[in-house]
Design a protein that fits this description.
Layout (H helix, E strand, L loop, with lengths): L11 H34 L10 E3 H8 L4 H10 E4 L4 H4 L13 E4 L4 H26 L4 H5 L15 H6 L3 H15 L3 H19 L4 H54 L3 H6 L2 H25 L2 H16 L4 H45 L1 H6 L3 H53 L5 H42 L22 E8 L9 E8 L4 E6 L5 H6 L9 E6 L2 E2 L5 H6 L1 E4 L8 E2 H5 L8 H10 L3 H5 L8 E2 L8 H15 L3 E5 L7 H14 L4 E5 L3 H4 L4 E6 L2 E6 L1 H7 L1 H10 L2 H5 L1
Parallel strand pairs: 6-13, 6-14, 9-12, 12-13
Antiparallel strand pairs: 1-3, 2-3, 4-5, 4-7, 7-8, 10-11, 14-15
């Protein structure tokens, strides 16, 4: 994967924007359980009362609380509230909320920061509990004895109806502290959470005494937090959609750039590179492999940052909600990591061979489709079906194995998830019963645990597709990193428009890459403009190899090839091939029209030039017989025209270029003798200034050539005209006599 990381650079801005959005989305998603906890704890259990520091309280209540506050805390509390008298301008804005203010003065809390409220909450909560307990003692004299404990001041001896707060106000501070300490000891086992909940009940009772609409307060709180949760959800959805769009755009862009560069690289390959990378493999790398990378890029953008943020953030928040239950998540995560490791270790080897199996099935399918006529002619359908079935079954078995391993993963993950849920609920229920946690906190802890597990599930999906994508990346990088053997010089010479087209071979030898011996040895000749140089010899003698060296499909191993006394390795491949009209052994046509195929040589060619080329190539008759003429559609590979028609159109395409050098690599083999002769006459008439090189098996095709080169096992065994070779070259004589009679040869 690292070998192709440079393809992400153009999309770094979008990538960074995605990371920022993912961070925002993760934090928004992590906030939702906390808000749910608030709805349950504060909205439902506490009737919407958020703090033990009341927003308002009766004057007498504050005076009662002050009895059990330290001097420092009492000063802080009194400075936090303002006394509002009834029937004043200040009272007008509060009387509707606190009807009690119509007749009695109340204290209203000033604007305080969260830190200031937090500092007052604990002393206020404890003071509220003491005041609540004393109020119960006044309402229930039998409980008064328990309030004093070992104190010398026995509350149970006071007459019924005694105002305990008035009596306590006259006691020394030490005795009040002792009574408060005794009462607080009763609540010491409750824990801070339960003390806060109990104190909130007293705040709610105070609000009811003030005439506040407590039910409205509760509904308002729930609706407010619910609206906030809805807003967070919408923002998270917007971030999700945006990240999805950006990830798809990044992945599509990377895929497009990879396909473009792979195609451009393949176009620069010489025949040696094509021998290294089979066509079926290049097709798989350009399609399936890049699709795998495109998919993993999209997943990585969406998950590689989001899942860790969710996992780490969820863990931190879960511990904050229930620190005593951290071990439940730790156990689940360890089990998940173990399961993922096992699954990946099993699936990884299979992922590494799946792309090779796809190569294989593409190769077999390509061979079958291109060779269907031969297969039918030899009744080999059964054999080819077995060959394809073998490749297909291998790929299917491998894919099914991976699918089965992946299928096991999801039920295992869900089982771990469900067990974790049960454990959290079981442990959480005991924590609630022991007053160590609130119900809302247990619910939030459960949701955080689910988020943590799902983040590992998402990462596991990435681990599953990453091995296969890694293999695909290596295969693509192998193509992109391949340096073509044939390259352009750093300071190329220029073949200008005055090129005459003289081709010279000087002691040229050649061997294929990796071969043990030369296939051409010490080849020397000169092909001059206005002359035809023909190559003839037995099959495998090296005829096509010789002419394929001229356009630099291969480079010579030894010696030089010169065009107009310039070594072809000293000019650019583009400049060299601009001077060559090449017609291969197999006529290759592209999907489109006859005209588009001809313009492949020169897109600016005039209609007259196209018609002239068609006429020289002896293709006018069948082209003009078509209703659409030059606009006749050509199927892929030219399958809707005959072999001879393909060859003639390929020859016409080369003629459209009007180059100084023509190479015909056995390009007349599909033509009848009459058409062959007519085409050669037309070529001789219309290409008098060009250098023509012809590879052929037919003696009749080369009889009139100015120079015939006879090859045998990669060596020149004869060179001259037809008449000269008939006298001096035994190999040429054997070939000629095997095809024509002496009478035909001498005519």
């Amino acid at each position: 994967m690292l070998r192709i990381r440079r393809y992400l650079k153009p999309y770094m801005f979008m990538f960074l924007a995605s990371v920022i959005l993912l961070f925002i989305q993760a934090n928004l998603d992590l906030a939702l359980p906390d808000y749910l906890s608030r709805i349950v704890n504060t909205g439902i259990q506490q009737s919407g009362v958020e703090s033990t520091v009341p927003e308002a309280m009766r004057q007498g209540t504050l005076n009662h609380l002050a009895l059990f506050l330290s001097n420092e805390d009492e000063t802080a509390v009194r400075s936090a509230y303002s006394l509002i008298q009834p029937n004043t301008l200040a009272a007008d804005q509060y009387v509707e909320t606190y009807p009690y203010l119509e007749n009695e003065a109340i204290y209203v809390r000033n604007e305080l920061s969260d830190d200031e409220i937090e500092a007052l909450s604990t002393p206020m909560a404890k003071a509220l509990l003491v005041v609540s307990a004393l109020q119960q003692a006044m309402d229930n004299p039998e409980a008064a004895a328990q309030m004093g404990g070992d104190s010398p001041f026995d509350l149970s001896r006071l007459p019924a109806g005694t105002d305990l707060f008035a009596v306590l106000g006259n006691l020394p501070a030490a005795q009040r502290d002792q009574i408060a300490s005794t009462i607080n000891e009763r609540f010491a086992t409750l824990g801070d959470s339960m003390i806060e909940q109990t104190a909130v009940i007293q705040v709610r009772a105070e609000y009811e005494a003030l005439g506040m609409d407590v039910a409205g307060l509760q509904n308002s709180y729930i609706l407010r937090i619910g609206a906030l949760m809805l807003g967070i959800t919408l923002l998270s959805a917007a971030a999700t959609i945006t990240v999805g769009y950006l990830s798809a755009k990044i992945a599509a862009g990377v895929g497009r750039d990879l396909r473009s560069d792979v195609f451009r690289k393949v176009e620069s390959f010489s025949s040696a590179e094509f021998d290294k990378f089979p066509t079926a493999s290049l097709i798989t790398r350009s399609t399936n492999d890049i699709t795998q990378l495109q998919m993993v890029t999209m997943f990585m953008v969406r998950l590689v940052f989001y899942a860790p943020i969710m996992g780490i953030g969820g863990t931190i928040r879960a511990i904050g909600k229930g620190s005593s239950m951290w071990w439940t998540i730790a156990v689940a995560v360890l089990v998940l990591i173990g399961v993922i490791s096992i699954i990946v270790s099993i699936a990884m080897p299979r992922f590494q061979i799946v792309q090779k199996l796809i190569d294989r099935i593409n190769l077999v399918a390509r061979e079958n489709l291109s060779g269907m006529m031969v297969i039918r002619a030899f009744n080999m359908q059964g054999f080819e079906e077995k060959r394809f079935d073998k490749a297909n079954v291998d790929l299917t078995d491998n894919t099914l194995f991976i699918a089965r391993v992946m299928a096991i993963m999801m039920p295992v993950m869900m089982f771990i998830l469900n067990v974790l849920s049960v454990v959290i609920l079981w442990v959480g229920a005991h924590q609630v019963a022991e007053a160590n946690m609130q119900v809302g906190d247990v619910m939030a802890f459960l949701q955080y645990a689910m988020q943590i597990v799902f983040s590992f599930l998402m990462l596991s999906m990435l681990f599953i597709i990453l091995p296969r994508a890694s293999v695909s990346a290596e295969r693509i990088a192998d193509v992109l990193d391949t340096e073509p053997i044939i390259t352009d010089p750093a300071n190329p010479k220029v073949l200008n428009g005055s090129t005459s087209g003289m081709v010279e071979f000087r002691n040229v030898s050649f061997r294929y890459p990796g071969a043990d011996k030369d296939v051409l040895k010490d080849i020397s000749f000169v092909a001059r403009p206005g002359e035809t140089t023909a190559f003839i010899g037995s099959t495998g003698s090296g005829k096509s190899t010789v002419v394929n060296l001229i356009p630099r499909f291969y480079d010579v191993t030894e010696g030089q090839i010169l065009v107009d006394d310039v070594d072809i390795r000293d000019v650019t491949q583009h400049d060299l091939r601009e001077k060559i009209g090449y017609v291969p052994q197999k006529g290759v046509l592209f999907s489109g029209t006859i005209e588009s195929n001809l313009r492949y040589a020169d897109e600016f060619a005039s209609p007259e030039d196209l018609q002239t080329a068609v006429a020289i190539a002896q293709a006018s008759e069948f082209v003009n017989s078509k209703p659409e003429g030059l606009l006749t559609e050509i199927a892929q590979g030219g399958t809707n025209v005959s072999g001879g028609q393909r060859q003639r159109l390929s020859i016409a395409r080369a003629l459209v270029r009007k180059p100084p050098i023509f190479i015909f690599d056995d390009s007349f083999s599909a033509l009848d003798f009459k058409t062959d002769a007519a085409l050669r006459r037309a070529l001789h008439t219309n290409t008098q200034d060009s250098t023509i090189l012809i590879v052929t098996q037919r003696v009749s095709t080369v009889k009139n050539a100015e120079q015939i080169i006879v090859l045998d096992q990669g060596r020149v065994v004869g060179k001259g005209t037809h008449e000269e070779l008939m006298e001096t070259c035994e190999t040429y004589q054997e070939i000629a006599l095997s095809q024509l009679s002496m009478e035909e040869l001498s005519s």
